[in-house]
């Protein structure tokens, strides 16, 4: 099955006959406040560095990521986006049977299928508000003898998150590899939910992060993974190209990970707007809203004559794009997801949905 990764704004703008900048994209989960101004300035001021190779060891970049994640720099792997690292890790450990906590990002299943892995899906249920009992999941992992467990934390699209103690509980007493995708972790309390500090004591843990969503830099294709297992780390490195991170991604990364003013401001604004959007969506009687720890909110339409596809098409005519979640296995054509944008944009979304769903 194929799951699209947010809107293709270039294609939509052409079809709608409007400028790409005129589309309100509530589908892509990208920080609406843009990238760090200091990081962008660094690129502008150093544009002539296009004529030199990056440091093949990326010492400075790994140093700032190390400080940012509170991890050792020699446990950091860099990738051209998180997706490259997902593929490299799966190919390296070559699991025969994997447990995929679902609904989930389609690239996990895509990469597992490439190697002929037997995939078992552990679905979060709407009857439980898409929350997962850690003891039930641990029992499933221990009784079925999996080679790999994949968890997106917080989960996309449900917004559910395991805290770090629950992840530690899952890791205890097993040699099963765990891949924890923390693409959206920075939109919640990292001290409570992030697993990066568990790397040193658990060689079967691989934590992945990207910079596309929180740092609003999908165009530079910068991702990073953390693992202390040296054998796995060395084998992953063999699969990655030399200089796989370009000079401008390197320059931006060296600045934005230590731009604390930008980071703190993003956390404050996104938290405030998530609360606002959550509260306003809950006021609409025809919608059920699920608790989220990401920068997006999963909603279920309760009206019989309305589907997520219909809602998508109606809003699209107004230049507003939401995520129709019917393509996520485990969800139906009643589910849609919206990400958090700026306040006036969130207000407009609520206004338009109120006109459609009572």
Automatic annotation (TrEMBL):
<keyword id="KW-0663">Pyridoxal phosphate</keyword>
<protein>
    <submittedName>
        <fullName>Aminotransferase class I/II-fold pyridoxal phosphate-dependent enzyme</fullName>
    </submittedName>
</protein>
<feature type="domain" description="Aminotransferase class I/classII large">
    <location>
        <begin position="22"/>
        <end position="353"/>
    </location>
</feature>
<keyword id="KW-0032">Aminotransferase</keyword>
<dbReference type="InterPro" id="IPR015424">
    <property type="entry name" value="PyrdxlP-dep_Trfase"/>
</dbReference>
<keyword id="KW-0808">Transferase</keyword>
<dbReference type="GO" id="GO:0008483">
    <property type="term" value="F:transaminase activity"/>
</dbReference>
<dbReference type="InterPro" id="IPR004839">
    <property type="entry name" value="Aminotransferase_I/II_large"/>
</dbReference>
<dbReference type="InterPro" id="IPR015422">
    <property type="entry name" value="PyrdxlP-dep_Trfase_small"/>
</dbReference>
<dbReference type="Pfam" id="PF00155">
    <property type="entry name" value="Aminotran_1_2"/>
</dbReference>
<dbReference type="InterPro" id="IPR015421">
    <property type="entry name" value="PyrdxlP-dep_Trfase_major"/>
</dbReference>
